[in-house]
Amino acid sequence: MKFNSQQIADLVNGDIEGDKNVEVNFFSKIEDAQPFSLTFLANPKYESFIYNTKASIALVNSDFTPSKPIPSTLTLIKVNNAYESLAQLLNYYENIDTPKTGIEEPVFIHKTAKIGKSVYIGPFTYIGEDVVIGNNVQISSNCHFDKGCKIGENTKIYSGVKFYDKSQIGSNCIFHSGAIIGSDGFGFAPNKENQYQKIIQIGNVIIEDYVEIGSNTVIDRATMGSTIIRKGVKIDNLVQIAHNVEVGENTVIAAQTGVSGSSKIDNDVMIGGQVGIAGHLKISKGTKIAAQSGITKSVLKENSVLQGTPAFSSNYFKRSYVLFKNFPELKKQIEDLVKEINKT
Questions:
Q1: Do 236 and 182 share a structural domain?
Q2: Strand 258-259 relative to strand 240-241: parallel, antiparallel, unpaired?
Q3: Looking at 94, 125, 160, which one is the last position of a domain?
Q4: CA within 20 to 30 Å of 278's CA: 39, 95, 111, 176, which one?
Q5: Is 243 an annotated catalytic residue?
Q6: CATH code: domain of residue 90
Q7: Which of 110, 144, 176, 243 is catalytic?
Q8: What CATH number corresponds to the domain at position 217?
């Protein structure tokens, strides 16, 4: 499907510099773009590529001023935020095709389950007792919905996602392949023989609207009550959310992060990859945690920026690291000074 620069500019409320009729029919990265493709420039690190790109159209920020001539074959569309406008176009492109509807074979649907309108259910999917599937839900193959699950409308579920019983899912969510929602929390009580008695997990998972869960991420059910993922949360692949955790609105969590049981993460928190958060902690609103950090105590100050293990202020961490990496040289200098002193 082809789009010209004027159509694209209208969609993203942009201003055209160049040919208003040039057409594109696919997206490409700026460093290896081909003719008739649309690319973008949002990060200044990639500016050098725009001066020899073969793309036909490039989205750029409105304040972008070329430092040298751009190719005559390239049309610029200036927007307030090139990355945001790209996301808007990709979303539009993804939804051009009419979604599938209907139920494939074989599929098991319990007689008490309720299936909404314009739903698609892929083959080998199991829908159990008292499950409720909302309107326009898209379910790929090999998915599993245990007793009492509820899935809100317009939610998209890729292959192999499993929902344990009583999981409550909002509208407009996305679940990528292999995600597990509602598995047992890691709860065991040692007895006098030093054996571990399983603590039965009778709670559930509640996921609100506009949440996206990455592949092979696991969100455990609560021991009692609910593990809660609030509206607008985005969770990457390979993340572990333990029992009774609460994740606040519009929080983002990168891959390989683990959040231990009963910790409460407030709204608008950003968590980098491979972060570990201990149990029963509070992470305040707007906190930013750098990759590979370890959070061992509550973060009570809003908008904190943390790094390291145990994590502390990122600014202090960077200053400390400068000293740390120079310790071998500092040690040698001290030893040399001691030798000189001993000679006197």
A1: yes
A2: parallel
A3: 94
A4: 176
A5: yes
A6: 3.40.1390.10
A7: 243
A8: 2.160.10.10
Instruction: Return the HEC string of 95-150.
Output: CCCCCCCEECCCCEECCCCEECCCCEECCCCEECCCCEECCCCEECCCCEECCCCE
Alpha helices in the chain (DSSP H): 5-12, 82-94, 314-325, 327-343
Query: Are residue 154 and residue 296 in the same domain, yes or no?
Result: yes
Residue with tokens 């500016």: 47
C-beta neighbour count of 333 within 10 angstroms: 11
For the segment 85-135, what is each residue's pLDDT rounded down to a tens digit? Answer: 999 999 888 878 788 999 999 999 999 999 999 999 999 999 999 999 999
Q: β-pairing, 138-139 with 240-241?
A: unpaired
Identity of residue 67 = S
What is the token pair recorded at 262? 């009963």
What's the pLDDT score for residue 312?
A: 83
Question: Where does residue 232 fall: left (phi above 0), alpha (psi -120 to 50 degrees), or beta otherwise?
Answer: left
Placement of tokens 């696919």 in the chain: 26
How many Cβ atoms from other residues are within 10 Å of residue 247's Cβ? 28
Q: Are 289 and 308 in contact (CB under 8 A)?
A: no
Total number of domains in the chain: 2
Average pLDDT, stretch 220-229? 97
pTM, 2 dp: 0.85
Amino acid making up residue 326 = N
Residue 103 carries which side chain, given as an amino acid letter? I
User: Which tokens in the block code for residue 18?
Assistant: 């160049």
Residue 213: partners with Cβ closer than 8 Å, 6 or more residues away: 173, 174, 175, 176, 179, 181, 207, 219, 229, 235
- Residue 328 CB contacts under 8 Å (≥ 6 apart), including other chains: none
C-alpha distance from residue 112 to each of 96, 105, 167 (Å): 34, 19, 17
Q: Is 240 helix (H, G, I), strand (E, B) or coil?
A: strand
One domain, residues 86 and 163? no
Residue 342, H or E segment: helix 327-343
